[in-house]
């Protein structure tokens, strides 16, 4: 961020949202609904394929392998998604059920069990052997532990972004798309936002710029990485009609893979991590251009989903990773809020993060404990 001279200036907006993708679109809607004067900005017209939100669907799980800190946020996020579903012309949420499966010693599966117990979530915990009776298409080792969540499912991520933008627009929210923000400066009591289209002023700003946040806030400790996902041939056994669930499966090496029930005989699948750091957008090669793109999924399919066929097509995208893979939800100063570092598991939270931004802009207390997501945790780990 370029920090400008302190000058008095009349703030025009209550809130400017920089980046109107997953989180920013929700923030625009909830802030406008709360009665504020809001400007949403994006360098593209979301949804689009140049960020982290394309590919039609995202999984939402509640028994959270990444830690129980997330569960209160998740439960609120789920209720907001269900509300949005009722207000939208296209589907937003589908209760497909989600199967989590991993070796017994896996931290991911143990944390999923812990969060289910702590929050009394509706889950079936069984062994790989028992799960195979229910889903013979999934070849889990007998000793695996599985946590099945019947109430979890999938979000239609691009539909949701479209809906939030449309609903915000109908409430009279100002929207400036295909326009990049190039700098943010403190100006008097408020903030000056410089864009390709001109300069705008606001009392508060929320930065929800996804992977490329460091162009505006260079000190945010995230690493942009490239990831790929692909659609494979799969017959009716893998479809929702056959009650095939969305899944997150960790292999014996601790690598996470996720997938969705097949639609029109195409099953979408991805590997969660495999850091391929990139410096610039242009380094995000299309699917198939990196030597590991197909291989990692093929090994997984061979072992765990042997009935799934060849790759039909794929796509690449980016994640904004933090070192501990936990989110950054914090203020930079009293007027600038940043939501970043969603580390490849943030979509399911976009609704509640949008509402949290609205509370920040209104000056309301946040109902959640956000201390695990503060920026100062990175300074602490450096000095200890
Ligand atoms: C393949 C894949 C699968 C995933 N699966 C899951 C899943 O199953 N479940 C889950 O919960 N999460 C999942 N995720 C992660 C999730 O999608 C992301 O964490 C989430 O979409 C990030 O939201 P965001 O708002 O931070 O970023 P984005 O949605 O990318 O939005 C950022 C926006 O900021 C705009 N922008 C950036 N810089 C500027 C600027 N200078 N000026 C103006 N605008 C700017 C961009 O154009 C973009 O629209 C997955 C991600 C990928 C890529």
TrEMBL record:
Keywords, alphabetical:
FAD, Flavoprotein, Oxidoreductase
Pfam families per the UniProt record, alphabetical: DAO
**Would you tell me the Gene Ontology cellular component terms?**
cytosol
Cofactors (names): FAD
Molecular function, one GO term: flavin adenine dinucleotide binding
Record's keyword annotation contains Heme = no
Q: Does the keyword tRNA processing apply?
A: no
The FAD dependent oxidoreductase domain, residue ranges: 14-359
Give the protein name, as stated in the record: N-methyl-L-tryptophan oxidase
């Amino acid at each position: 961020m370029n920090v400008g001279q302190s000058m008095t200036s009349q703030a025009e907006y209550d809130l400017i949202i920089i980046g109107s993708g997953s989180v920013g679109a929700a923030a625009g809607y909830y802030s406008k609904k709360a009665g504020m004067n809001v400007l949403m900005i994006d360098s593209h017209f979301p949804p689009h394929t140049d960020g982290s939100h394309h590919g039609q669907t995202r999984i939402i799980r509640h028994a959270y392998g990444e830690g129980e800190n997330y569960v209160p946020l998740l439960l609120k996020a789920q209720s907001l998604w269900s509300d949005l579903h009722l207000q939208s012309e296209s589907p937003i949420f589908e209760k497909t059920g989600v199967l989590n499966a991993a070796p017994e010693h896996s931290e991911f599966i143990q944390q999923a069990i812990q969060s289910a117990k702590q929050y009394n979530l509706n889950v079936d915990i069984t062994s790989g052997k028992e799960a195979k009776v229910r889903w013979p298409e999934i070849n889990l080792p007998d000793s695996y532990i599985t946590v099945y969540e019947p109430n979890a499912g999938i979000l239609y991520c691009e539909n949701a972004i479209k809906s939030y933008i449309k609903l915000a627009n109908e409430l009279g929210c100002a929207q400036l798309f295909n326009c990049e923000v190039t700098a943010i400066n403190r100006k008097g009591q408020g903030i000056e936002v410089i864009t390709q289209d001109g300069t705008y002023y606001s009392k508060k700003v929320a930065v929800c710029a996804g992977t490329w946040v460091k162009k505006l806030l260079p000190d945010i400790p995230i690493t942009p990485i490239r990831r790929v996902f692909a659609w494979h041939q799969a017959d009716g056994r893998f479809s929702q009609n056959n009650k095939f669930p969305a899944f997150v499966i960790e292999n014996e090496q601790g690598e996470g893979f996720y997938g969705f029930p097949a639609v029109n005989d195409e099953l979408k699948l991805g590997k969660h991590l495999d850091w391929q750091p990139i410096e610039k957008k242009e380094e995000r090669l299309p699917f198939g251009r990196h030597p590991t793109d197909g291989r990692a999924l093929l090994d997984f399919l061979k072992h765990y989903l042997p009935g799934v066929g060849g790759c039909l097509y794929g796509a690449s995208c980016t994640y904004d990773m933090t070192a501990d893979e936990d989110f950054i939800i914090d203020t930079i100063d009293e007027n600038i809020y940043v939501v970043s570092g969603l580390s490849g598991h943030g979509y399911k939270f976009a609704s509640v993060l949008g509402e949290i931004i609205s509370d920040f802009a209104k000056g309301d207390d946040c109902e959640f404990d956000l201390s695990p997501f503060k920026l100062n945790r990175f300074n602490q780990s450096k000095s200890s």
